[in-house]
Amino acid sequence: MTRVTSGAILLIAFLVLGLTVSDTTPTIDRFAADALGGGWQQTIGDITFVVSAVLGPVLPVALGLALLVGAVLAHRRGDVARRGLLLRAVVLLAVCRTVSLVKPLFARDRPREYPDFSFPSGHVVSVASVAFTLVVLCAWLAARRVRAVLWWSIAAVVVAALCRMILDVHWLTDVLGATLGVVGLGLLTATGLKLLPARPQGVKSPV
């Protein structure tokens, strides 16, 4: 199965899931909410609020700025290949982040009273966007570390998802949908930007 096909399938799954849960709450969502939610007014809620503040929209902004700074420095060194890679990574990150902009399309209510719509989780979209971009960059710049970065990225997405459910502001399908949307759109975008498959020989690795 090609990357484009995989990306398209994941995006379709994202859309179907969103339309399915837009006016109903599946049993699995209620089960997860009963198991994890309800503690947002307790100590665990305070902890997860702090973690969620870090693993959220601030991450793609920070990474985007870091990539732009890196691109400027690469330009000054005359490293055209690295500059192009970092700028394409900025585009990839920005496109992945747009997944959360479709919330009004589904207009799903949150588990508790809270601003904005629920599907997909913007926090998980943010973390997944950063994770996807970092894995792609790692494949170019430090291929031997891709597996480690991938596992750390998965862990970060899972933690972000759990925090949002513990805070009772997202359903399980909200965080699942966010992940499907980002990976699907990420595969299509990265392929279109010629970031996949990675060709590390074209960019010198710093390690």
TrEMBL record:
Signal peptide: none annotated. Pfam families: PAP2. It comes from the Bacteria. The chain crosses the membrane at residues 48-73, 85-102, 122-142, 149-169, 175-196. Residues 86-190 form the Phosphatidic acid phosphatase type 2/haloperoxidase domain. Keywords: Membrane, Transmembrane, Transmembrane helix. This is Phosphatase PAP2 family protein.
